[in-house]
Amino acid sequence: MENIQNLPKHQQAQLEQHLVNYQVKDSLSMYMNLVERCFGTCVNNFRTKNLDQYETKCLENCSERYIQSANRAGLRFQEHQAVQMKRAQGGAGGVAK
């Protein structure tokens, strides 16, 4: 990431805007997946226009579990990336064992 500082200002701005767009797209994708999964699991009939107590509780539990699992997956990915970076730096540094 230190190479970003070496870019011209207009390219830095373009890169930052690209990252923001990517984060928004990723957040929307996660939200849409959550809605699709939880609604499909919890809402089985359309007798009334309102959700019943079971559907509401199911949606709350499902969305909470989905967000927790997404956060956990993100943390595990960060841990994996950190290990990979350490390995890459160790190999690039010419450290002999």
Q: Uncertain segments of ≥5 residues (pLDDT<50)?
A: none
How many domain units?
Answer: 1
Highest-level CATH class: Mainly Alpha
From the alpha-carbon coordinates, what is the Rg to the nearest angstrom?
Answer: 21 Å
The CATH H-level homologous superfamily: Mitochondrial import inner membrane translocase subunit tim13 like domains
User: Structural class, from helix and strand content?
Assistant: mainly alpha
Series of secondary-structure elements, N-terminal to C-terminal: HH
Features:
elongated; 97 residues; Helix Hairpins; 0% strand; mainly alpha
Written description of the protein model:
With 97 residues, the chain is mainly α. It has a single domain, classed as Mitochondrial import inner membrane translocase subunit tim13 like domains (Helix Hairpins). The chain is 76% helix and 0% strand. It has helices spanning 9-42, 53-92. Helix 1 (9-42) runs antiparallel to helix 2 (53-92). The mean pLDDT is 86.
